[in-house]
């Protein structure tokens, strides 16, 4: 069940039949017990994994969240209310939790249809109850936070999520990166609140922010550990540039919607199973628009993009 990472850090992969299908939770060993980084989705399968671990009698000091996407925050309320474990979240994450309690499927539906997409099946619903609790502690940009017995600097890296934080231990040259940087895939950059913004710009800026930190080992929220963080950042930047050029080329002819561009790149798009690819396409288009490379046209309430 436990995968050793270092002498004081172990990983447990929490699985569930939704979204990415699993999340990496890290157990940071300390004299007061383990600090758990991220929890997994609020699903029976994930709870059973944690119950099996807790049945071994291991002491848990606290839960700390990298960000409040469902697969990371999902069982935080359960840990707090059922197991009696305090939960710590960033100041921005706390604000996102309060916003998410009022998150509307209508906003997402409006955004998708405005950009040429179909109606979301009415059976699709979010579990917003996971956000209905008060954190026991709050941390902020630049704070030093103790994870296990080691001190980490909290670094705000918005993009994948507005509240995404990384944690850096200078002496160990170790960084916990959440979903900011993954080893084998590019993190999805989306507009999950249904409001337009420019999260890809935020993400690329956050990659630059992380570059100066010397980290020989990075612990991501999904997949395998990253040995050379700087090299992986360069790969992600190159990949994003390639995708942006691809999107730009696809707008050379007739104006197209984000949904049409998404289908050009990824093939036929089922909005429920491929909403992440739609979001990634839309945020690239918005980024190119802010650079002045493309412009939008409104046609019968639907947005199309075209090259300048």
From TrEMBL:
Family annotation (InterPro entries): Metallo-B-lactamas, RibonucZ/Hydroxyglut_hydro, Sec-metab_biosynth-thioest
Name of this protein: MBL fold hydrolase
Domain of life, per lineage: Bacteria
Upper lineage: Bacteria, Bacillati, Bacillota, Bacilli, Bacillales
Chain segments annotated as transmembrane: none
Molecular function, one GO term: hydrolase activity
PANTHER family membership: ENDORIBONUCLEASE LACTB2, METALLO-BETA-LACTAMASE SUPERFAMILY POTEIN
Annotated keywords: Hydrolase
Residue span(s) of domain Metallo-beta-lactamase: 22-222
Organism per entry: Compostibacillus humi
Keyword field contains Hydrolase: yes
């Amino acid at each position: 069940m436990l995968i050793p990472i270092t002498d004081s850090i172990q990983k447990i992969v929490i699985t569930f039949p939704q979204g990415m299908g699993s999340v990496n939770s890290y157990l940071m060993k300390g004299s007061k017990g383990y600090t758990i980084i991220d929890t997994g989705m609020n699903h029976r399968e994930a709870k059973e994994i944690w119950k099996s671990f807790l049945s071994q009698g291991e002491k848990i000091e606290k839960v700390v969240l990298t960000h409040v996407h469902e697969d990371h925050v999902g069982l935080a309320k359960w840990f707090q209310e059922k197991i009696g474990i305090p939960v710590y979240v960033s100041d921005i994450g706390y604000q996102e939790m309060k916003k998410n309690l009022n998150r509307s499927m209508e906003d997402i539906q409006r955004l998708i249809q405005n950009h040429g997409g179909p109606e979301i099946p009415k059976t699709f619903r979010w579990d917003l109850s996971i956000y209905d609790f008060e954190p026991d502690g709050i941390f902020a940009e630049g704070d030093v936070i103790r994870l296990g017995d080691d001190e980490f600097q909290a670094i705000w890296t918005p993009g994948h999520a507005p509240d995404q934080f990384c944690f850096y231990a200078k002496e160990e040259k170790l960084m916990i990166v959440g979903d900011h940087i993954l080893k084998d895939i590019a993190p999805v950059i989306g507009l999950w609140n249904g409001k337009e913004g420019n999260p890809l710009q935020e993400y690329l800026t956050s990659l630059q922010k992380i570059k100066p930190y010397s980290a020989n080992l990075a612990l991501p929220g999904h997949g395998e550990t990253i040995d050379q963080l700087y090299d992986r950042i360069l790969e992600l930047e190159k990949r994003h540039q390639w995708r942006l050029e691809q999107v730009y080329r696809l707008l050379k002819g007739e104006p197209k919607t984000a949904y049409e561009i998404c289908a050009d790149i990824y093939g036929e798009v089922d909005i429920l199973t491929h909403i992440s690819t739609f979001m990634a396409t839309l945020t690239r288009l918005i980024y190119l628009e802010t650079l002045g490379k493309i412009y939008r046209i409104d046609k019968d309430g639907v947005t199309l993009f075209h090259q300048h």
